[in-house]
Amino acid sequence: QVQLVESGGGLVQAGGSLRLSCAASGRTFTTYAMGWFRQAPGKEREFVSASINSWSGVKIDYADSVKGRFTISRDNAKNTVYLQMNSLKSEDTAVYYCAASIGLRVGVSRLQNAYDYWGPGTQVTVSS
Fold first, then answer.
1. What are phi and psi of 72, to 5 degrees?
2. Over the stretch 95-120, which tens digit does the pLDDT of each residue have?
């Protein structure tokens, strides 16, 4: 069983920055693929970013809408994955979810059903 807890959400003005954190339980955190998804009001949950430490190196993926503005990183010693969000826009307003996959080994996935565990989410509101 893996438990995930997000933190770092809040209210920020457009153009500002926030860093989300996701603390994970589990002794094999380094093998998990970790993803960030978000769900805006009235919309379906969508992929934001993901990271995995595969045998061939770190693999990272970003949605086109956040590429160049968001950065995913992980501290394996702290069992924590981060999402640094810069140049925030009003359309980034959403509940952000952290997810972990124990099945992915080679690369990450943008599909929600590839992830086995989810955090409760943290609200990010960007005011224009």
1. -95, 140
2. 999 999 988 888 999 999 999 999 99
